[in-house]
Amino acid sequence: DQQVKQNSPSLSVQEGRISILNCDYTNSMFDYFLWYKKYPAEGPTFLISISSIKDKNEDGRFTVFLNKSAKHLSLHIVPSQPGDSAVYFCAASVAVKAAGNKLTFGGGTRVLVKP
Amino acid sequence: DGGITQSPKYLFRKEGQNVTLSCEQNLNHDAMYWYRQDPGQGLRLIYYSQIVNDFQKGDIAEGYSVSREKKESFPLTVTSAQKNPTAFYLCASMGAGGWTGELFFGEGSRLTVL
After folding, report:
1. What is the pLDDT of residues B58-96, one digit of tens each?
2. A16 min Cα distance to partner chain B (Å)
């Protein structure tokens, strides 16, 4: 049973336009959410995170939105650049040490930004 | 430079053989993790360790074993009991200073069973 789902396996967008990546979760205990970016044959790198006490977090071109009632979060990249072409993973966690500090990942969305 | 080093980067194994993947970190992080990546399935947690000499099973621990004898090291053994070991394996660590949620990943090890 996948607790974190990214229903779009791929996304193609023109350079300069907005990329919107979506993520849904089922576990209502999750209260901390992260996005990671991964290039081929490399480890993922942390991009941006959001706590459940917020509904938006912004860092430069990247904004994450959280809708707790819908158990949905999204990552907006504006403007999209060719270097943003990568696989993006959504991850969720219960932010207490007793839970083991574990992250549960979605299946990833491959983004291709066309020049 | 601080970071996580995984070795080897590529590994081939015959069926029935055990193989050990190395993971070393010099970030002074307490918690370490092993994830497996398969196409379209994201990252799945194999084992994790929050402190030296202690570790817990993740979601797909069957056929794997780990040890945590030193803070810096968290090797993963893929045993012959693992039915589908061909995958990309990622080691990660997390800092001790409160909850950040941020995992630092190594560059991964690709295991292919022939």
Report:
1. 999 999 999 999 999 999 999 988 889 999 999 999 876
2. 27
